[in-house]
Amino acid sequence: MDIQVVDAPEKKRYEARTGEAVAGFAEYRLTDELAVFTHTEVDSAYEGQGVGGALVRGALDDVRRRGLAVLPVCPFVKSWIQRHPDYADLVYQNRPGTGAD
């Protein structure tokens, strides 16, 4: 399945799209230095097909490109980052100067 992850800032979320269909989304709130991921949802028709993982990876890659840190409030995003330590440097608490170093 071809999954494209796009930012939909007017909806404050990243969307995982297959063609014209939205297979899932990850809602966020932005500050000048932080992307707070609050909720992730995958349409039941696409569950178990890697949509959630592709969605989070694409969203975090975009956040990294933009130079932002991440606050993973959403349990799915938080657990995905824990399983993919190469993204741990994006987590706000892991960044130098945040008081957690």
TrEMBL record:
Keyword Acyltransferase part of the UniProt annotation: yes
MF annotations from Gene Ontology: acyltransferase activity
Entry EC number(s): 2.3.1.-
Pfam families: Acetyltransf_CG
InterPro entries: Acyl_CoA_acyltransferase, Gcn5-rel_NAT, GNAT_YJDJ
SUPFAM superfamilies per record: Acyl-CoA N-acyltransferases (Nat)
Ranges of residues in domain N-acetyltransferase: 6-92
Keyword annotations of the record: Acyltransferase, Transferase
PANTHER family assigned to the protein according to its UniProt record, in alphabetical order: BSR4717 PROTEIN, PROTEIN NATD1
Protein name per Swiss-Prot or TrEMBL: GNAT family N-acetyltransferase
Organism: Streptomonospora arabica
